[in-house]
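Researcher: We plan to redesign the surface later, but first we want a full-length starting point. Tokens attached.
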């Protein structure tokens, strides 16, 4: 996963297991420190995977326009 992010230079959204349910997460680097940020909460893995896929596609489209 980190290899893909390094190749494209954009944050990659992915499903992450939480104590209860799933969420969509991505890594952020600030001041040389990389942290994992959690976002949208979902009930199932399929829902989290679908949302992460949509968010990655939207980010790619936004990068192509610039």
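Model: Full-length starting sequence:
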């Amino acid at each position: 996963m980190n290899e893909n992010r390094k190749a494209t230079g954009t944050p990659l959204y992915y499903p992450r297991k939480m104590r209860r349910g799933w969420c969509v997460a991505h890594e952020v680097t600030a001041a040389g420190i990389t942290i994992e940020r959690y976002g949208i909460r979902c009930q199932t893995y399929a829902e989290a995977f679908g949302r992460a896929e949509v968010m990655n596609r939207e980010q790619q489209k936004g990068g192509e326009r610039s």
